[in-house]
Design goal:
Largest sheet of chain B: 6 strands, mixed, barrel
Number of helices of chain B: 14
CATH class of the domain at 44-66 and 91-235 in chain A: Alpha Beta
Number of strands of chain A: 10
Distance between the termini of chain B: 26 Å
Shape of chain B: elongated
Strand content of chain B: 15-25%
Number of domains of chain B: 2
Number of helices of chain A: 7
CATH superfamily of the domain at 44-66 and 91-235 in chain A: P-loop containing nucleotide triphosphate hydrolases
Helix content of chain B: 55-70%
Oligomer: heterodimer
CATH topology of the domain at 44-66 and 91-235 in chain A: Rossmann fold
Largest interface: A-B, 26 and 23 residues
Radius of gyration of chain B: 33 Å
Structural class of chain A: alpha/beta
Radius of gyration of chain A: 18 Å
Order of helices and strands of chain A: EEEHEEHEHHHEHEHEE
Shape of chain A: globular
Largest sheet of chain A: 6 strands, mixed
Structural class of chain B: alpha+beta
CATH architecture of the domain at 44-66 and 91-235 in chain A: 3-Layer(aba) Sandwich
Number of strands of chain B: 10
Strand order of the largest sheet of chain A: 6-7-8-3-9-10
Helix content of chain A: 25-40%
Strand order of the largest sheet of chain B: 2-3-8-5-7-6
């Protein structure tokens, strides 16, 4: 269905314009991001790639509203993030972004469904609705029968699926995955990628940071970074971008 | 994140670290339990002593005549007809009696060595109502003995035991020396009453208790060679109306005799010194308990700082998925408050147990007021709040990127 929508007609989710990020350590100035501009529209599945030190992690932190740019603008869902305070950023992270980390980052003392429900705790959803929505999200990653397990009772792949469910549960504008398969074996890696692809087919917008080319080939587009600069925009799914 | 959520997760994290939580609470437990135990024993002791004191001074007034005043004439001195006049003209008087209190020496007729300094009250029958005592042997002085001024005496049981040991003192003669008058007379013991400070003796202060004795006022007057009295003791029926009643008594005396020479005051309970000692002791214990609570509070702060350090990653995760600063602040603050409040509750329970145990051994039933329990709970909550603020702030200020990177 979504294939029939022209790329240009899609809503802009992320709009980055002339973005710089400079780290200052003493007299040393490190330009982690250098005049970066790009947009991501709804329904895209974008891989951000580059070698270590290329600036892709910094890019991810800024995209995830964990960090703010030194200059330039970053608009997420038409909201300019650059000038928001701590509380407003927390609110954006909570409502508009779903995070998937390389190290899963689940709370070890909480059951799967409680981990999944955690973002809803901070957005003020009532306890009963939280559990329902958490179980629903677990079902969408095929883990409804592991709802009461704790992370140490799950395999790495299962943990990451719980983390994906947690990213989905708040119905965010965009899902951001930072090397989501970096800690997984190849079988689990395949499962996770399939889940992302399925979610994307269902309409989710996904940004994934990775350094593995074969993973990038699963996405619709690859943005390559080198030394803090955006060096290449590589279309994989030509059908999706046919009018571009 | 609402309060119940925070509360639940805080309880959970304290349960996850049972041993550590308990050790952290120890300072609070000791502090609060000593406050509870001490105030329980203190109040119980005070009540027991006050119960004894009530019979010897509380709600009782003393009327005096100022013999040095310029207007004073001997016809204004207090006499028997003044008592009758007051009884006829003022309502609400339970008992009224003249009294002469003298310091005396009691000497045993047989065992010459035993001599005790004592306070003797020379009174009438009404005094039995004012200063009620429990007779353990013999009987009170009878009305006829009061009126005729028979040479009879009743003494307290500690003194009786000191002088006569196991023998019965009843019917025995003792020599009473009125040193200030330089006179002496033989009295027959007709009764022994329980010492008014028996309760005090039970907590180990018996060695310095004064001796008490009573003789008929008429006999005393005969020895002194005087008919009038310097003081009247008045007990109003309603202790709460004491001042009003006494004002009317003075009015009547002034109408009958003369203005400005009569005055009244409440008889000061002679146990007030003991009360002072108890209060000082209480202050000292509160001071010690205060230090213990302060140290306990620092313990709470220390463990909360450790807890924050250990959970940097958790804080990072929570922040990354949308926890605001105040969410994290409240989470850690609640934990430290619960930690010290639970410590406080355990302390209250411990304090109960200790005070009943100690109370059992020193024979003082403890009185633990709900107020002190409430205060203890509030104080332990405040400790958690005050000492939790710093660690909780540290946690809430963490940068999510750095926190997530922490392993």
């Amino acid at each position: 269905m979504s294939d029939h929508i022209n790329y240009n007609d899609r809503e802009t989710v992320i709009e980055i314009t002339n973005l710089d990020k400079i780290y200052q350590t003493g007299d040393l100035e490190l330009k982690a991001l250098d005049n970066v501009s790009y947009t991501i529209k709804s329904g895209e599945f974008v891989a951000i790639m580059g070698h270590s030190g290329s600036g892709k992690s910094t890019m991810m932190n800024i995209l995830g509203c964990l960090d703010t740019p030194t200059s330039g603008t970053y608009k997420l869902d038409k909201i300019d993030i650059s000038n928001l305070n701590d509380n407003e950023l927390a609110n954006i992270r909570n409502k508009k972004i779903g995070f998937v980390f390389q190290a899963f980052n689940l709370l070890p003392k909480l059951k799967s469904w409680e981990n999944v429900a955690l973002p809803l705790v901070y957005s003020g959803v009532h306890a009963k609705a939280r559990k329902e929505r958490a179980l629903e999200a677990l079902k969408s990653v095929g883990l409804e029968n592991r709802a009461n397990h704790r992370p140490n009772e799950l395999s790495g792949g299962q943990c990451q699926r719980v983390a994906i469910a947690r990213a989905l549960v708040g119905n965010p504008e965009i899902i951001m995955a930072d090397e989501p398969t970096g800690n997984l074996d190849s079988k689990s890696e395949g499962e996770i990628i399939e889940i992302f692809k399925k979610l994307n087919r269902q309409g989710a917008t996904i940004v994934m940071v990775t350094h593995e080319d074969n993973l990038g080939q699963n996405c619709k587009r690859i943005i390559r970074f080198h030394d803090g600069k955006l060096i290449k925009n590589e279309v994989i799914d030509h059908e999706f971008y046919r009018d571009f | 994140m609402n309060f119940i959520e925070i509360f639940k997760s805080s309880i959970q994290s304290l349960i996850n670290n049972k041993m550590r939580s308990l050790l952290t609470m120890l300072g609070i437990i000791i502090g609060i339990s000593s406050v509870i135990a001490m105030s329980g024993i203190g109040k119980g002791g005070e009540k027991k002593i006050a119960g004894n004191l009530a019979s010897s001074g509380l709600g009782v007034y003393q009327i005096t005549v100022d013999k040095d005043a310029d207007e004073y004439k001997s016809i204004y001195s207090l006499e028997k007809n003044d008592i009758e006049y007051i009884q006829n003209n003022v309502d609400g008087i339970m008992a009224i009696t003249p009294t002469i209190r003298q310091r005396i020496a009691i000497r045993n007729k047989l065992g010459k060595d035993i001599e005790r300094m004592a306070v003797v009250d020379s009174t009438t029958l009404d005094y039995e109502k004012i200063d009620e005592v429990v007779y353990t042997e013999g009987r009170p002085i009878l009305n006829i003995e009061y009126e005729e001024g028979s040479p009879v005496v009743v003494i307290d049981h500690f003194t009786a035991k000191k002088i006569f040991n196991t023998q019965t003192p009843l019917g025995k003669k003792i020599n009473i020396e009125f040193r200030s008058l330089q006179k002496a007379k033989e009295f027959i013991i007709v009764g022994v009453f329980q010492h008014p400070y028996t309760a005090i003796s039970e907590i180990g202060l018996s060695s310095r208790l004064p001796t008490f004795a009573r003789i008929p006022l008429t006999q005393m007057q005969r020895i002194m060679g005087e008919e009038d009295y310097e003081t009247l003791i008045v007990m109003p029926k309603n202790p709460l109306m004491g001042n009003e009643t006494l004002v009317r008594v003075i009015e009547q005396l002034e109408i009958k005799n003369h203005s400005d020479i009569y005055d009244y005051e409440e008889r000061i309970p002679s146990g007030s010194e003991l009360k002072n000692i108890l209060e000082t002791l209480n202050m000292f214990i509160l001071f010690v308990a205060g230090i213990s609570l302060f140290v306990g509070g620092i313990g709470v702060m220390n463990i909360m700082l450790v807890s924050v350090t250990e959970r940097i990653k958790e804080i990072g995760i929570r922040k990354a998925i949308g926890a605001r600063r105040k969410d994290i602040l409240f989470q850690f603050l609640t934990e430290s408050i619960i930690l010290s409040l639970v410590g406080g509750i355990l302390g209250i329970i411990m304090g109960y147990l200790i005070s009943y145990m100690v109370g059992y051994f020193i024979n003082i039933p403890p009185i633990i007021s709900p107020l002190i329990v409430l205060i203890s709970a509030v104080i332990s909550t405040l400790i958690g709040l005050v000492f939790g603020v710093y660690p909780a702030r540290q946690a809430s200020m963490l940068n999510p990127i750095d926190a997530l990177r922490n392993e």
